[in-house]
Design a protein that fits this description.
This protein folds into 2 domains: 147 residues, DNA methylase specificity domains (Adenine-n6-DNA-methyltransferase TaqI, Chain A, domain 2); 135 residues, Adenine-n6-DNA-methyltransferase TaqI, Chain A, domain 2 (Alpha-Beta Complex), CATH 3.90.220. The N and C termini lie far apart (56 Å). The radius of gyration is 28 Å and the shape is elongated. It is of the alpha+beta class and 352 residues long. Helix content is 24%, strand content 23%. A hairpin with a 4-residue loop joins strand 5 and strand 6.
Length: 352
């Protein structure tokens, strides 16, 4: 195949051993659309949009267990799948098995291109921008003619393509592994919140740490913490600031003003995310859209307690939701009478 000799480019970051310039090639020279169709079977299961986790390119079920037979475009594991309907949904898949793609899929077979590299190419911002230049507002579809004539810059050597494709494949496997661990820990945390705290009319939890037997006592939130407000805003960011300044989403800059001298918990008091809590370290500051709570005893236990609370009961205002400490501070919770038990529970959830 004759390759275009237009302006070649070199990426800013490369794997060692590769120095050849990359080249511009139209997408129709990188991949061809498959069109042969067949009916799904046990040996060739069907893949539909609903079977794929958007943005992740992972199946969400065992598709071999699907009983209904459907007609779709055949793939044999040497192609990649791109969802052309509503391309902003980011439905794509890199299958290593035979099957049929049912619905609005492009089944793309690479042309003198590594399959895994092609799979990464369809996830790039350039491809995404072109794919979303589609006709139709309710059911937009990517325009093949437009994408086919678009030029992409790709490695001239297949070895470099393979290196890049393998690298991102390894990253995906690592992400999947950690995502699985994260989901397991979330389930453990949910179970522990249900069992390490009394439920309904119970005076003690179902599960307790050793050497603790006292009944838990009812206590208002405000009896266990001190509330602090802030008059800081984005305008208090200073070039010569020494304290991290937080808003609801994280650090926004440095400031010289009003640092907290103890670990504390911020709580969003108005607007989007109202009631969301975050544990922050001492010698940092926060802006006025949040309030702060400092514990009278164990900060980690207070943080867990706040995560259990349902702040929807205390929201005021329909247009801009708002909560007041004068309301939720009177919420009654059951807590361990023994401060050592509070510390034990707080330390346990801190590790989680």
């Amino acid at each position: 195949m004759q390759k275009p000799s237009k302006l070649a480019q070199i990426p800013q970051i490369r794997f060692a051993g590769f120095t050849n310039p990359w080249e511009r090639r139209k997408f129709r020279e990188l991949a061809v659309r498959e069109s042969n169709c067949d009916i799904s079977s046990i040996d060739m299961p069907c893949v539909e949009y609903e079977d794929v986790i958007a943005n992740e390119g992972q199946l969400n079920k065992d598709i071999s267990l699907k009983e209904m037979q459907k007609k779709g475009i055949i793939f044999d594991g040497s192609q990649v799948l791109f969802g052309k309907l509503r391309p902003y949904l980011h439905n794509w898949l890199n299958p290593d098995f035979k099957g049929v793609a049912v619905g609005d899929w492009w089944v793309l077979r690479p042309i003198e291109l590594d399959k895994n590299f092609l799979y990464r190419l369809i996830q790039t911002q350039q491809f995404d921008d072109i794919a979303n230049q589609s006709a139709g507002s309710k059911m937009p579809r990517a325009d093949w003619n437009l994408i086919a004539e678009t030029e992409f810059i790709v490695p001239s050597l297949i070895e470099e393509q393979i290196k890049i494709g393998s690298y991102f494949q390894s990253l995906d496997k690592l992400i999947t592994l950690h995502q699985s661990k994260f989901e397991k820990l979330q389930k453990i945390k949910k179970s522990c919140l249900q069992n390490l705290f009394p439920q309904n009319n119970q005076n003690t939890p179902k599960i307790r740490f050793k050497n603790f037997s006292d009944e838990w006592v009812e206590s208002k939130l405000k009896e266990n913490c001190i509330y602090k407000s802030s008059n800081l805003s984005n305008s208090d960011i200073e070039k010569e600031g020494i304290y991290d300044l937080y808003d609801a989403n994280g650090i926004i800059g440095k400031t010289k003003k009003n640092p907290q001298t103890l670990d504390y918990i911020t709580i969003i008091k108005d607007g989007s995310g109202v009631g969301r809590v975050r544990l922050l370290p001492k010698n940092t500051a926060f802006i006025g859209t949040m309030g702060a709570l400092q514990s009278n005893n164990c900060i980690n236990f207070l943080y867990v307690l706040l995560q259990k609370m349902d702040f929807s009961f205390f929201i005021n205002g329909a247009t801009i939701p708002h909560i007041y400490f004068s309301d939720y501070g009177n919420a009654i919770n059951k807590i361990p009478k023994n401060s050592k038990e509070q510390e034990k529970i707080g330390a346990f959830f801190s590790k989680l």
